[in-house]
């Protein structure tokens, strides 16, 4: 059983439709576990026909031959009253029956306290002694403070999140290591704070780069030599990804302006696109940075991107709320250290990789100071580049798939009586 909070559309004729990226993940998961399972049963909210009609171009259809079926305990537009008094109660018998047949529950945290589907499923699995994998892919613990500081939340919304929703979520973090057979937190700080030192609680990174994307040892040496010399006196920074407000691109542009005022010879390359592109161009022009800040259209991950990054010294990130960008590892793989605000994800990366320079969130002046300091110390920059490649080489997608498979077998399957679970659905 695979339990998620992402809605899916269930057609009366039998096929289902999932958001395209999620559908690819489910299909890959089904292929990964191979002949060990019969089917994946997806447990999620039901998307309405109207919403599906509006989003169908971004969704992928799965049929019975894909080995995936669906069980929707409630409609995505159900009120909390409808969830508790009608939808979930009616779904309890089929859910309980499906869990009896299942081999593993793949679940996570319920963020919605009004309709806490995943939390309820975790409790049901614990009551049935069903092996459970609990995954949390983001550290939410500073969200309330940050959204309030940024002016995104009213005092009422801040209070609701800080004193009601966050304690509910933290309670799940405390219980997960006690109730689940395998717990995966994205970030070593979550493991340190909630793992209780238990062997089945692990940090993980969700990477997509391969060993072929990582610079060779000879290429690293050449890059270190280039970084450590003054052959390229202009310090070139890069950001590649989506142009959304949460990425803090306006803070990055502002930091470049501040850094140049201190006579730092610096340029910025922004690769990507999104809703904020026009606003960014306006900001760049208003600050008089058109000669040193360039916007490049989005390019696919691969050779073309790598060519653009060859002349770049480091990458920059300024997440305004917690973010776990895969682009961080893509940058590491090409020998690019990162300058970033000190969010939980980048603090963890800094401690584990030695390839991140941190600035105080969300201060553009602090970010500018970190950029200027790194630009002035090319020896440090070269050492960080070597650390970046080494860290990327030990955290490829294949490496993490292998680690997760090993953990899944150790904590979810090998420790159980497999014969007693022959008919169950494995979804790890």
| CATH fold descriptor of the largest domain | Rossmann fold
Number of domains: 2
Q: Kindly report the spatial arrangement of strands forming the biggest sheet.
A: 13-12-11-14-15-16
- Class derived from helix and strand content: alpha/beta
| Amino- and carboxy-terminal Cα gap | 9 Å
SSE inventory with pairings:
Layout: E1 2-3, E2 9-10, E3 16-19, H1 20-33, E4 40-43, H2 49-55, E5 59-62, E6 68-71, H3 80-101, E7 105-108, H4 117-128, E8 132-136, H5 143-149, H6 155-179, E9 182-185, H7 188-194, E10 201-203, H8 217-228, E11 235-242, H9 249-261, E12 266-273, H10 277-286, E13 293-296, H11 303-309, E14 314-317, H12 327-333, E15 338-341, H13 344-353, E16 356-359, H14 364-376, H15 378-393, H16 397-413
Parallel strand pairs: 1-4, 4-6, 7-8, 8-9, 9-10, 11-12, 11-14, 12-13, 14-15, 15-16
Antiparallel strand pairs: 2-3, 3-5
Helix pairs in contact: 3-4, 5-6, 8-15, 9-14, 12-15
Walk me through what this model shows:
- The chain contains 16 helices and 16 strands.
- α13 (344-353) links the parallel β15 and β16 (356-359).
- The strands form four sheets. Strands 13-12-11-14-15-16 form a six-stranded parallel sheet, sandwiched between helices.
- The longest helix has 25 residues, at 155-179.
- The protein folds into two domains: 2-203, 3-Layer(aba) Sandwich (Rossmann fold); 211-395, 3-Layer(aba) Sandwich (Rossmann fold), CATH 3.40.50.2000.
- The model is unreliable at 417-428 (pLDDT under 50).
- 46% of the residues lie in helices and 16% in strands.
- By secondary structure, it is α/β, with parallel strands linked by helices.
- One of its GO terms (molecular function) is glycosyltransferase activity.
- Keywords: Transferase.
- This is Glycosyl transferase family 1 domain-containing protein.
């Amino acid at each position: 059983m695979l339990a998620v909070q992402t809605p899916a559309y269930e057609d009366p004729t039998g096929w289902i439709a999932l958001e395209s990226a999620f559908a690819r993940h489910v299909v890959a998961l089904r292929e990964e576990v191979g002949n060990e399972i019969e089917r994946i049963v997806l447990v999620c909210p039901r998307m309405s026909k109207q919403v599906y009609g509006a989003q169908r171009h971004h969704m992928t259809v799965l049929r019975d031959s894909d080995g995936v079926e669906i069980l929707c305990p409630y409609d995505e537009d159900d009120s909390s009253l409808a969830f508790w008094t009608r939808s979930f109660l009616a779904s309890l018998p089929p859910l309980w029956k499906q869990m009896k047949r299942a081999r593993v529950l793949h679940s996570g945290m319920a963020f919605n306290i009004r309709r806490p589907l995943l939390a309820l499923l975790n409790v049901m699995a614990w009551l049935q002694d069903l092996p459970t994998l609990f995954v949390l892919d983001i550290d939410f613990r500073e969200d309330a403070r940050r959204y309030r500081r940024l002016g995104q939340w009213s005092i009422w919304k801040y209070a609701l999140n800080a004193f009601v929703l966050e304690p509910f979520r933290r309670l799940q973090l405390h219980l997960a290591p006690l109730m689940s057979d395998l717990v995966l937190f994205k970030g070593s700080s979550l493991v340190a704070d909630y793992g209780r030192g238990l062997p089945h609680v692990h940090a993980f990174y969700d990477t997509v780069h391969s060993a072929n994307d990582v610079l060779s040892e000879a290429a690293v040496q050449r890059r270190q030599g280039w970084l450590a010399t003054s052959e390229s006196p202009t310090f070139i920074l890069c950001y590649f990804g989506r142009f959304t407000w949460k990425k803090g691109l306006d803070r990055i542009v502002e930091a470049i302006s501040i850094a140049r005022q201190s006579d730092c010879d610096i340029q910025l390359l922004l690769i990507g696109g999104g809703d904020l592109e026009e606003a960014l161009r306006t900001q760049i022009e208003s600050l008089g940075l058109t000669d040193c800040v360039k916007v490049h259209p989005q390019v696919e991950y691969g050779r073309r991107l790598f060519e653009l990054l060859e002349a770049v010294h480091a990458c920059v990130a300024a997440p305004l709320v917690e973010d776990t960008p895969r682009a961080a590892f893509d940058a590491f793989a090409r020998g690019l250290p990162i300058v970033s605000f000190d969010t939980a994800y980048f603090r963890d990366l800094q401690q584990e990789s030695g390839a991140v320079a941190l600035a105080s969130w969300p201060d553009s002046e602090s970010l500018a100071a970190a950029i200027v300091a790194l630009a002035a110390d090319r020896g440090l920059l070269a050492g960080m580049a070597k650390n970046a490649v080494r860290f990327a080489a030990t955290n490829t997608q294949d490496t993490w798939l292998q680690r997760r498979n090993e953990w899944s077998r150790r904590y979810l399957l090998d420790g159980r009586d497999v014969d007693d679970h022959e008919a169950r659905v494995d979804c790890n």
